[in-house]
Write a structure and sequence with these properties.
It is a single chain. 32% of the residues lie in helices and 17% in strands. The protein is of the alpha+beta class. The chain has two domains: 83 residues, no CATH class; 99 residues, 3-Layer(aba) Sandwich (Rossmann fold), CATH 3.40.50.300. The strands form two sheets. The chain has a four-stranded antiparallel beta sheet, with helices on one face. Strands 5-6 form a two-stranded parallel ribbon. Helix 3 crosses helix 4 and helix 5 packs parallel to helix 6. The longest helix is centred in the last third of the chain and has 16 residues. It is globular. Its main location: membrane. It is a multi-pass membrane protein. GO terms for molecular function: ATP binding; ATP hydrolysis activity; ATPase-coupled transmembrane transporter activity. Belongs to the ABC transporter superfamily. ABCG family. Eye pigment precursor importer (TC 3.A.1.204) subfamily.
């Protein structure tokens, strides 16, 4: 089902730039088995990578398996960097980025959808609003925000449908599951959305539907 309306505009537009990013793997520090040679070598994962994306733009990071796409996403989001050494700079609106800033302004949609099968779409979003929003947020605002993202992502017709589990328990479609993942992140009105392979595992129709959602998010001023 296509989305039903224009996604609401972002409150704080953000542009991101990265300059001369170099990422090296750290030598293994684990226990060395007697029959294995110690490997002190470091792999140069990303070499002098630079780029820029403005608020309102949709950017796709493409490359073959092992090219470093996920590593670059991790650098931009400051996630999972304990096993690598990173050189270079990442800036938000021209200022050097730190973890707390990018965390407060961005959301990350995982490749794999993780849901409780026996609750409805609306119940899932209610739970997510309690987890993600500030404790001082009023119930009225939570309900308003939930209704807004349901409308924005075209999920209002399946709002009271059980989520289910693929090939196990009947529920919403694969495309609706992916849109629900995005809706969960949109609850907090992020300025930047990072999506890891958002069309993976979807047929061409559902993949096109998700890309329409991505374009709508960019049109709303998000990065």
């Amino acid at each position: 089902m296509p989305i039903t309306g224009k996604i609401s505009s972002v409150s704080q537009p953000v542009s991101i730039s990265w300059h001369n990013i170099n990422v090296f793997s750290k030598p293994s520090t684990g226990i060395r088995l007697p029959f294995r040679k110690k490997d002190d070598s470091s792999v140069h994962i990303l070499k002098n990578v630079s780029g820029h994306v403005n608020s309102g733009q949709l950017l796709a990071i493409m490359g073959s398996s092992g090219a470093g796409k996920t590593t670059l996403m991790n650098v931009l989001t400051q996630r999972n960097l304990s096993d690598v050494k990173v050189n270079g700079s990442v800036k938000l609106n021209g200022k050097i980025m730190d973890y707390n800033t990018i965390k407060s302004l961005s959301a990350y949609v995982q490749q794999d959808d993780m849901f409780i099968a026996n609750i409805t779409v609306r119940e899932h979003l209610k739970f997510q609003s309690r987890v993600r929003m500030d404790q001082s947020t009023t119930l009225k605002f939570r309900e308003s925000r939930i209704n807004q993202v349901l409308l924005d992502l075209g999920l209002n017709k399946c709002a009271d449908t059980m989520i289910g589990a693929p090939e196990v328990e009947k529920g919403i479609s694969g495309g609706e599951r992916k849109r629900l993942s995005i809706a969960s992140e949109l609850l907090t009105d992020p300025s930047v959305m990072f999506c890891d392979e958002p069309t993976s595992g979807l047929d061409s129709f559902m993949a096109q539907n998700i890309m329409d959602v991505m374009r709508e998010m960019a049109a709303s001023g998000r990065t």
